[in-house]
Amino acid sequence: MGRPVSAELTGFTVGVTADRSRDALATLLEGHGARVVLAPALRIVPLADDTELRAATRACLDRPPDIVVANTSIGMRGWLEAADGWGLAEPLRGVLAEAYLVTRDPRVRGGPEHATPVEESYAEVIDHLRHRGVRGQVVAMQLPGERQPEWTAALEAAGATVIEIPVYRWAPPLDPAPLHRMVDLVTGRLVDAVTFTSAPAVNALLRAAGPSSEDVLDALRSDVLAACVGPVTAAPLRRHGVPVVAPRRARVGALVRTIIKELPPRAVSVRAGGHDLTLRGHAAVVDGVLRPLAPGPMAVLRALAAEPGRVFPRAALLRTLPRGADEHAVEMAVARLRAGLGIPRVVQTVVKRGYRLAVD
């Protein structure tokens, strides 16, 4: 049985590679009708026992920073929790309270209230500080999971002394199976979009793909939408020639709105057998009613709809099915497609030649 299309992303499947923000992102996408596949590419490991973070904390106490750049609220909490374990939390809070605080996360609190501007990206943070003037000042900069040498270099070139604060690091997921499944889904065009909220997640997906990494990139260059939270996240994909969509504001909600704007127009629509058909990811919309389809029948429908009216031999349709399938599998996929659409005559059999859409 079909159902009316009630939301913008109904019928589409979206892969989520985030760890920390996966629940919020999945909830928003599902709220707009999408089917979500979770495959965290990385996980954040707190550095409570890290010697680098401890050394950076002591550097801040020895030479209190004039400016603190806070990337995330979770990073700030992790830093203070680690300092508490070393008996340094109170002096650190005192130092931070006197600093000029710049953040990309409105949930961060600290410093004089009038001195807490919220910037959208690290590039805007750096521009803001250079415009304000940093010569002769100490800047404590929370790292977003990995070093940002270009930002450090820009502040040092403007005359600042930079203390890098490595409050967390990236590590592989505890269970790599979902990420390897995501690779298969992308290469098989079984997801319509993949979201990325960090540049390391992009690299982690390609590492997980191994010899199939070029197949992943080919899919992202053509059939699978690559949606990134911001330009820093998008950079690795753009270096590989992947067209990327990203919101102007680096926020999860804005990322979902970008997907809602970009994904539905990519759907293929045809008029066949007196019916309106729109192909949406894992489903077809027939006269406004959603008809979910299995991957095999959906692959056959995509092939037929790519050239409406053309007769496709069984051998041609066989190539759209998973490896190991035979011509009998094509007949089964066509039968399931007709049943799933609820309008059997829309897929015509041309005797001794193959199948076609009954285009108007």
From TrEMBL:
Record-annotated DNA-binding residue ranges: 267-359
Residue ranges of every copy of the OmpR/PhoB-type domain listed in the record: 267-359
SUPFAM superfamilies: C-terminal effector domain of the bipartite response regulators (SSF46894), HemD-like (SSF69618)
Signal peptide (residue range): none
GO MF terms held by the record: DNA binding; uroporphyrinogen-III synthase activity
GO biological process: phosphorelay signal transduction system; regulation of DNA-templated transcription; uroporphyrinogen III biosynthetic process
Lineage: superkingdom: Bacteria
Keyword Transport part of the UniProt annotation: no
InterPro entries reported in the protein's UniProt record: 4pyrrol_syn_uPrphyn_synt_sf (IPR036108), 4pyrrol_synth_uPrphyn_synth (IPR003754), OmpR/PhoB-type_DNA-bd (IPR001867), Sig_transdc_resp-reg_C-effctor (IPR016032), UROS/Hem4 (IPR039793), WH-like_DNA-bd_sf (IPR036388)
Keywords: DNA-binding
NCBIfam families: PRK07239.1 (NF005568)
Protein name: Uroporphyrinogen-III synthase
Biological source species: Asanoa ferruginea
